Amino acid sequence: MRLGPLLATFLLLLPLAVAHAVTPDEVLDDPALEARAREISAELRCMVCQNQSIDDSNADLARDLRLLVRARLVDGDSNEEVIDYVVSRYGEFVLLKPRFSPKTWLLWGAPALLIVLGGIVLWRFSVARRTPDRPLSQAEEARLEQLLADGEDN
């Protein structure tokens, strides 16, 4: 039996088997609300797992936040209202993608600023390497000869 095709099939199907942490008792009856809840949950950081969304985390806090998101949606809150509520309780850090606000301008602008500064530095070095040395004038050559002659005498 050849394992190559079997292994290839397994590796192709493996991404489909990724399980989310949402348990069946958390799922809402309304598919549209559930889709919104999953969308919001994918944007919120698990405060226990750090760089994992609450949708993917198995932590108790993530479960509580998923339930909170669903409860707020059932109560009629918009996506933005739910996110604002969670941010008001846990701070901006709870967002996996920070908002563009005066508090986060440096966070968003730093990569562009570093690229521009790096380009300026590279340009300056390339210009410095391209400019050929100018030849010495006759006065400079005479002065150099004099200094070299004085140096040999010592």
TrEMBL record:
Signal peptide: 1-21
Cellular component GO terms held in the UniProt record: plasma membrane
Matching InterPro entries: C-type_cytochrome_biogenesis, CcmH/CycL/Ccl2/NrfF_N, CcmH/CycL/NrfF/Ccl2_sf
Topology in membrane: Single-pass membrane protein
Location, primary (coarse class): membrane
Sequence intervals crossing the membrane: 105-125
Compartments (UniProt record): Membrane
UniProt GO BP: cytochrome complex assembly
Keywords on record: Cytochrome c-type biogenesis, Heme, Iron, Membrane, Metal-binding, Signal, Transmembrane, Transmembrane helix
Keyword Zinc-finger: no
Residue span(s) of domain CcmH/CycL/Ccl2/NrfF N-terminal: 11-148
Pfam families: CcmH (PF03918)
Molecular functions per Gene Ontology: metal ion binding
Domain of life, per lineage: Bacteria
Entry's family note: Belongs to the CcmH/CycL/Ccl2/NrfF family.
Role description: Required for the biogenesis of c-type cytochromes. Possible subunit of a heme lyase.
Name the record gives this protein: Cytochrome c-type biogenesis protein
Provenance organism: Martelella lutilitoris
